[in-house]
Amino acid sequence: MRIPILRLGDILLTSIQSDITDDQALTLQVDILKQLGDSRALGVLLDITALDVVDSYMTRILSETARMARLMGGEVVITGMSPMVALSLIEMGRDLHDVLTALDVEQGVEKLKRRLDATGDEDDDRPRCERGSANARD
Amino acid sequence: MRGTDSSSVVLIATPEDVVRARQAGRMAAAALGLGLADQTRLATAISEIARNALHYGGGGRCEISACQEEGHHRITVQVTDHGPGIPEIERAMSPGFSTGNSLGMGLPGAAKLVDSLAIESRPGLTQVTLAMRRKAR
Amino acid sequence: MKTLSDVLSLHKDKIIAAWIDRLAEAGDGDSETEPMIRELLERLIRALKSDGPPDIKAPTFHDLTKHMIEVSASRAREGYSPSSTGRLILGLKAAADSAIAAEYSADPDRWRRESATLSEVIDGLSILTFEAFMRAREEIITRQSDAMLEISTPSLLIWDEVVMMPLVGVIDTARAQHIMEEMLNAISREQARVAILDVTGVPVIDTRVALHLTNVVSAARMLGAEIIVTGFSPEAAQTLVKLDVDLRTMRTRGTLRAGFAEALRLLQCQIRPIG
Question: CA-CA distance, C80 to C27, in Å (whole number)?
């Protein structure tokens, strides 16, 4: 089963609804990047509320997706990670490098919008946030 | 008092089986009354070693057993495969080690989540055993 | 000649009376003592009567030892001292002496043998009693420390999207684990974007505790929340820097007040006087 990706204005919205296999995770990564390229979306919101296990493979997929998206000029926000998943990841010595996170979808959208506003090309007088590969899209 | 109170076996042949194995581990931990944090730790550790059995061992079996000892619960997970074996166990246990395809084996991480992790490996038989021991409530 | 079991049975009332006297002398007797020791003695008589060896590990003694363990554990829970519980069973030895002497005076060999048997059984029972007592005590201590752990780490919602957890007292590994879990759960439960961890009341912060602190900061960040640690004491600051603990990623403030101000700044909020 493929995980659906919805488009909401500038943002792609996708939610993992159950524990997924490595193959499904990889497929999702490919799908997200393809949609990001096809549409003119600037941000991706990936909700993982239902994921109760995030191991080294899943961590890799998540942070790679974010870095790949950034190369394409998009930002990824991961939302809804369960507290115990975060704890296990840290205890394993893993981290979601350079990935934006938010507690829930609402805060995620807010964070994404702020980040996108801060890198918009016409808004030069707005406060700028640091951004790894800023203006890659311009 | 000691004895195996329950045990379950998941055969690992597909990526779906890796998911099944970690969910079985979570259920075993929950059945003993372990908290969400320990359930997640165990499921995550199982996920790592079950994936190794699938990727490097060409599939295998995962046996999860729970027993009681002196006021403690003990969950033991043993993942066995008949692949080529892990050539350098010590290196495999050091962080950052990977076998060629840039994907580490996740063994050091898994070891940090449980109380003990033991590896026995030779060509034709690899056995990873992990255990978690918690005070009974 | 009568068996040891017969002798104890025949002189039961006299033995119990002497037993109670001895306990009363030590200040241990109360209204519950008599039925309790009567029960013990009756079980002992039954255990000795059977054909098995007079060994408290033998199955014939199972009924007696089980009862003894229960009595001892319940006394531990009721707050009796270990020595009074020990005296309870040891009192039987002296109390039964005169009865055994009276019955076996004609046969000194038999006398010696039977009193050695009784004394061996009682010694075994008293060790068992002591072990059961200690075990019951340990259970109480464990239960209490679990309960303490629960109440010692409250998390409070102090502002919209801000939770606070004041830490007081020494933090060991078990407590640090509990604090981390509770903090992350509180962030998720309250949908808090900022969490303040106040360590003003923590006397010692060593490398281990610091590691847990940095872990919880990273974990919270993965959830999408920032943690502000407030109130590191001068001693803590010295220790942490000397131990070379990397706390650069940690947002710290000197006081809870400054931490709260930082929390509001992160949320882009302000508190202003009215008018």
Answer: 12
